[in-house]
Amino acid sequence: MAAYIPEDKISAIKNTADIVDIVSEVVSLRRAGQNFLGLCPFHAEKTPSFTVSPEKQIYYCFGCGAGGNVFSFLMKHGGLSFPEAARSLADRYGIDLPTRDLSPFEKKKLTERETILTLNGEAMAFYRDCLISDGRGKQAMEYLLKRGMTRKTITDHGLGFAPDGWDHLLQHIKARRQAPAMAAKAGLIIPRKKGDGHYDRFRNRIMFPIFSEQDQVIGFGGRVMDDALPKYLNSPETPVYNKRRSLYGLNRARGKCRKTGSIHVVEGYFDMLSMHQFGLENTVATLGTALTAEHVQRLRSLVGEGGQAVLVYDSDQAGVRAAQRSIAVFEKGLLEARILVLPEGHDPDSFLMAHGPDDFLKIAQGAMGMMTFMVESAVARYGLAIDGKVHIVNAVKDAIGAIADPVARALQIKHLAERVDVDEAVVMQKIRQAAAAPDRQRMFADDPSAPAAARERPVRGETYRLERQVIAMMLQFPDIISDIRQRRLVEHFSDPLLADVGRGIIDHFDAHGRDIATLVAHWSEPEKRAVVARLSLDEQHWDSEACLRLIRQFESSLRRRQDKALIKEIEAAEKRGDENLLARLLEERQIQARNAALKPSGQAIDRVP
After folding, report:
1. Domain ranges (residues) in the chain
2. What is the pLDDT of residues 120-169, one digit of tens each?
3. Partners of 210 in the beta sheet?
């Protein structure tokens, strides 16, 4: 893997890649005029505000302010470095990148993240070879086939086998001249507690590689083939693997999710593999953790408006508790979720093997809404005697109180009251008390899955508004840039960020022309990229007359501000009794007044030095 990517290759990637194609793999988009709209993958929203421009090859979310080009989208959504994003796009569009041995200097520049991804890929190949072409994997292969896995499923999902022993992978890594310390950071090997050296983390286990949405191996899950504990062992958190963001099978589920507008969420590797094997490819699995806000956000943008998730749980109390934990997350993530409880004794794997996909889809159509599931589970557990009704209301009050939509919350209160035959006003009072309780407030305040509150945006005045309009005008009507430069408008901007953006636009259009996607990449700061993307997509008609009108308005505002500032200086000089400064300031004001009368409207006026 070469760390260096020549500029001509970056340009070739940028000119070939289609941002609509890339974004639509993870966001369900629909045409809206010249652009495309979808639910933002970076924050929870009810109404689509995430805009993608095929003409300008940029994206911008009018809800959270995220914006950029195709490279920055992959970097933000996938947590990729720029070289990783470029290589991913090059692979997709068949653009050859230089491959050669790295110099010592380039090896130093190779990022930790890239090195870990390389090691993970090599580990997957090692485990796969141990399963398929090595006698040590015979028992593991027999186990997989006995579980109903086909050879195609095994190959398509990259399953492998970690041989029994302490250092098989370690020796493989050393033989390829890879640093054990980096393999330890990747979670593949573990430092010995006593003495030097390392040993393999995964031993005598079926290996399930976990892929990112860019099809890179970011981690592994390992399962024993007997009753040894722990049954499952997962990679630890690493610079490339975050359980709160990752879902098993998401890389292969995306297309079917977009097509169906729905996704099944199961709890195990074999469950997910069986679902895919039986054609239910819109399925992912959690990775030993509860569903988080990050998970829901990704699923929401993938299934789009009106989409839903079907959570497939066992019918035991663990499944009920998992559903209860998920309600607040799905409410805050604004994604409809339903609960599918399989017949007693079944998980998705065993049910599909016994009954097939058609029967699964039939019972999935009757999956209950999350609140209905919670109420019915509480009824089944406590019964409808007097004490049981009290327990039922107490069991679901926090979940109902967590529902953000007041109409949906009122309907759920009504349903609960009717189901347990208790006066609706009494149920409502109980839920209000629960919502006001400090313990509940702390519970949701400390909930790590809760999305961060939207940042408060400061109130801006006329000056800031005009400066933003000038930037938008420069981006959408570049013919005016020469006038902007000549009148030195940007030099008079009061907002430092907008001033920097304005200077960058002038420099860029002088050197590179009107390529907005390249301009967005000019800055490393997300705020500046977002400003350019946002203002590039403003739907405002610009022509020469409208541009000159805005310039005159800006310069008129500038003169007023300069005059006010000068008056304040004059008043301060009078108070201090500084006659020399006062005389100079009064002369300056006379010159400004004379210039304002003599100069044509639309020409900036500078103060006398």
Report:
1. 7-93, 111-234, 244-455, 462-598
2. 999 999 999 999 987 889 999 999 999 999 999 999 999 999 999 999 99
3. 219
Note whether 140 and 127 are within 8 A (CB): no
Q: Whole-prediction pTM value?
A: 0.73
Rg (CA), the chain: 31
Rounded distance, CA 288 to CA 268, Å? Answer: 8
Residues 6+ apart with CB under 8 A from 386: none
Q: What are the tens digits of pLDDT across the range 478-503? A: 888 988 988 889 998 989 999 999 99
- DSSP letter at 280 equals -
Domain 7-93 class in CATH: alpha beta
Residue with tokens 């109409």: 407
Q: Which two tokens stand for residue 383?
A: 């019964």
Q: Which residues contact 413 (CB under 8 A, 6 or more apart)?
A: 400, 424, 427, 428, 431
Assigned fold of 244-455: Dna Topoisomerase Vi A Subunit; Chain: A, domain 2 (3.40.1360)
Spell out the residues 6+ positions from residue 576 whose beta carbon is closer than 8 angstroms to its own.
none
Which tokens in the block code for residue 249? 């099978």
Q: Is the peptide bond before 230 cis (omega within 30 degrees of 0)?
A: yes
Q: Which fold has domain 111-234?
A: DNA primase DNAg catalytic core, N-terminal domain (3.90.980)
